[in-house]
């Protein structure tokens, strides 16, 4: 039944009688699914296996020989397997699964998809399954396997396990326990097959929880050291059968060839529980009689409550092994079980006796502690970590053995994908763009953000508006705006800028953010605004007329309204409320109808006066003059729109002189808007996450993408 090296096995649909003669109780869980797939990986000669996910998503990937395109239609059918073709094959099984029910069972309780490619295929094939048969990936598509990009091997993806069986889903342990069982299975197979690279990572994790490099240079003891720690590997004893690799058990004239390879801890190692890893013919199983016999050997030489570490790999003749005695195939039975256990425990006892003459104890002298401290400092200065394996994770056991005294604590290591890289010496985005202006945002002087005190107010409407701003504040967004690094201006016409916060990159609409900022600044200084004098003062009527003409040209209004009538109505409305505008908003309109002063919301920044006609015109129809709170809120919103950095006034870089300093769009965004957002006066609402702040890059997520490539 073994395939030719590098070729894929054929799948066989078992006859109904043959399928009925095997036990049909099928266990579906993360650990059992992973265990079956791992055994198949090793049988097919895979050199790399990767497990990724949890209850919502489990993905198993290998680089084996793949599945043939013509076998995909029957892949998830019940009793479809590559291990059995006839009933007699049950006597020579070498794999964990053999009934062909694993994928079939999963397809009934989860969304199953398979992507596979053989060495002879020009492309990979992806197939989706439901209820044991091919299913379309999307509504309206055919269920046939679809060609796609991929590498040699197979990727099995299981999504939403037990989504249609809520009672079974509720019976599962919590996700952490289920993932721990899956990780335990992967760890044991990594010990058993050190030449194969294994990786296991939880969904959303930046680093794998388990990784082994594989290769012919990696041995079993190396992986035990890497996965279980230096304290375990330092106490190991190797026990193997003779040079011929076989022993015979004779009972009534019958013979059975068998061999073993084991790594067992000596008398100097003790743990709180027994760690027993048993493989029989390459299958991860358990044997209660063998477990009890091993514990009885260690009982006289270990303290009460202490237990050993034992890894044992047995190879028996397939015809002497019964793999079908347990519904989940966790346990097996084999011929001459008592004789095999007796022979192995006898060898184990003699080996332990040889190594029990003395027990080593590790201690540090003062000189050793000083040398270790000096070595640790040298390692930090060179930025080299000797205890990191190929996965990028440090070995906890070896780190504990080589760490200095507790008083000499070291800072935890920060991996590359979690490092925040910001420096004022780095090139900005603007420095990479060709600008006609001789002044750039990097060369412009910085503006100190003068604290703006909150003006006292006894008006209930203002107090309600201020409280509403605080209630709507988003803490995470406030943290981003308060602690960020400006990257550069992306698009002045569409008011887009880039900032960095931690390991994430965000795209901001600085026009919307500036409008919210100036609204809050106006609300904060209500009734106590500094004034900006207009010299010469423009005519209110002319400003309104210019604003009306521009608005009607941009958005014509159907009807018989004359522009002159609308102009008179707005001018009369604002003139009648001159006292209110002057007292509350520092907007002074003279008796002659001239606009003499405007409110100053932010020191060092004067709004673009080209938007003044539109602002004065909109005060008539857009402000609710009938309700006090609505009047104050709508007026401040219009004032914020006037002050905002929204185009068209600032679509290109210009050199307008404000207080004698050159300013352009990027400079205003960085040194005026975002500098003011760093202060405590700005409480960004959650609505900005939908309209003005978008996460465009995440460094840990990019590292995960690079790992898949």
Description of the molecule:
The protein is of the alpha+beta class and 709 residues long. It folds into three domains: 12-217, 2-Layer Sandwich (Heat Shock Protein 90); 233-354, Ribosomal Protein S5, domain 2; 450-534 and 600-697, no CATH class. Helix content is 34%, strand content 19%. The strands form seven sheets. Strands 2, 3, 5, 6, 7, 8, 9, 10 and 11 form a nine-stranded mixed beta sheet that branches. Strands 12, 13, 14, 15, 16 and 17 form a six-stranded mixed beta sheet that branches. Strands 20-21-22-28 form a four-stranded antiparallel beta sheet. Helix 8 runs parallel beside helix 9 and helix 15 crosses helix 16 (563-576). The chain is elongated, with a radius of gyration of 37 Å.
């Amino acid at each position: 039944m073994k395939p030719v090296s590098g070729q894929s096995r054929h799948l066989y649909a078992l006859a109904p009688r043959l399928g009925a003669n095997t036990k049909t109780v099928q266990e579906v869980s993360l650990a059992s699914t992973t265990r079956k797939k791992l055994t198949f990986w090793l049988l097919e000669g895979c050199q790399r296996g990767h497990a990724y996910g949890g209850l919502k998503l489990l993905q198993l990937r290998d680089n084996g020989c793949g599945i043939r395109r013509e076998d995909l239609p029957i892949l998830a059918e019940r009793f479809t397997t590559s291990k059995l073709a006839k009933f007699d094959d049950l006597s020579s099984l070498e794999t964990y699964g053999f009934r062909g029910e694993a994928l079939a069972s999963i397809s009934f309780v989860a969304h199953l998809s398979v992507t596979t490619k053989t060495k002879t295929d020009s492309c990979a094939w992806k197939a989706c399954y439901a209820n044991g048969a091919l299913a379309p990936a999307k509504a309206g598509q055919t269920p046939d396997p679809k060609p796609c990009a991929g590498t040699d091997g197979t990727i099995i993806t299981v999504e939403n396990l037990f989504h249609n069986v809520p009672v079974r889903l509720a019976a599962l342990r919590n996700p952490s326990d289920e993932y721990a069982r899956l990780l335990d299975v992967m760890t044991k197979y990594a010990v058993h097959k050190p030449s194969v690279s294994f990786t296991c990572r939880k969904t959303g994790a930046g680093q794998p929880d388990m990784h082994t490099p594989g290769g012919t240079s990696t041995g079993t003891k190396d992986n035990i050291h890497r996965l279980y720690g230096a304290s375990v590997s330092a106490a190991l004893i190797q026990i193997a059968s003779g040079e011929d690799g076989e022993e015979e058990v004779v009972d009534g004239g019958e013979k059975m060839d068998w061999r073993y390879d084991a790594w067992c801890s000596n008398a100097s190692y003790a743990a709180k529980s027994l760690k027993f890893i048993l493989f029989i013919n390459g299958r991860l199983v358990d044997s209660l009689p063998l477990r009890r016999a091993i514990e009885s050997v260690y009982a006289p030489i270990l303290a009460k409550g202490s237990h050993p570490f034992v890894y044992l790999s047995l190879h028996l003749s397939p015809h002497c092994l019964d793999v079908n005695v347990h519904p989940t195939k966790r346990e097996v039975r084999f011929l001459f079980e008592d004789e095999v256990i007796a022979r192995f425990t006898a060898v184990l006892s003699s080996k332990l006796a040889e190594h029990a003459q003395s027990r080593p104890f590790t201690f540090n002298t003062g000189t050793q502690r000083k040398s270790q401290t000096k070595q640790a400092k040298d390692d930090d200065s060179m930025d080299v970590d000797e205890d990191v394996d190929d996965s990028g994770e440090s070995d906890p056991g070896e780190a504990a053995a080589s760490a200095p005294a507790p008083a000499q604590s070291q800072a935890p290591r920060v991996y590359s994908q979690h490092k925040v890289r910001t420096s004022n010496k780095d090139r900005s985005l603007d420095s990479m763009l060709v600008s006609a202006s001789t002044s750039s945002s990097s060369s412009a002087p910085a503006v100190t953000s003068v604290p703006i005190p909150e003006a006292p107010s006894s008006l209930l409407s203002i107090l309600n508006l201020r409280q509403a701003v605080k209630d709507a504040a988003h803490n995470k967004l406030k943290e981003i705006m308060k602690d960020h690094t400006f990257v550069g201006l992306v698009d002045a016409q569409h008011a887009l800028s880039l900032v960095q916060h931690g390991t994430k990159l965000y795209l901001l609409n600085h026009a919307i953010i500036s409008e919210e900022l100036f609204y809050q600044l106006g609300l904060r200084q209500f009734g106590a605004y500094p004034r900006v004098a207009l010299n010469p003062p423009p005519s209110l009527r002319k400003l309104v007329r210019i604003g009306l003409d521009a608005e009607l040209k941009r958005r014509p209004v159907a009807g018989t309204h004359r522009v002159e009538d609308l102009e008179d109505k707005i001018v009369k409305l604002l003139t009648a409320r001159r006292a209110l505008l002057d007292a509350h908003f520092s907007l002074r309109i003279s008796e002659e109808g001239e606009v003499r002063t405007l409110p100053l919301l932010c020191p060092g920044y004067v709004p673009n006066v080209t938007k003044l006609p539109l602002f004065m015109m909109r005060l008539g129809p857009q402000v609710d003059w009938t309700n006090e709170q609505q009047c104050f809120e709508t007026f401040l919103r219009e004032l914020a729109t006037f002050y905002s950095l929204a185009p068209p006034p600032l679509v290109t870089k210009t050199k307008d002189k404000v207080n004698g300093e050159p300013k352009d769009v990027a400079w205003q965004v960085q040194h005026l808007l975002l500098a003011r957002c760093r202060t405590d006066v700005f409480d960004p609402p959650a609505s900005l996450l939908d309209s003005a702040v978008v996460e465009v890059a995440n460094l840990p997520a990019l590292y995960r993408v690079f790992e898949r490539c």
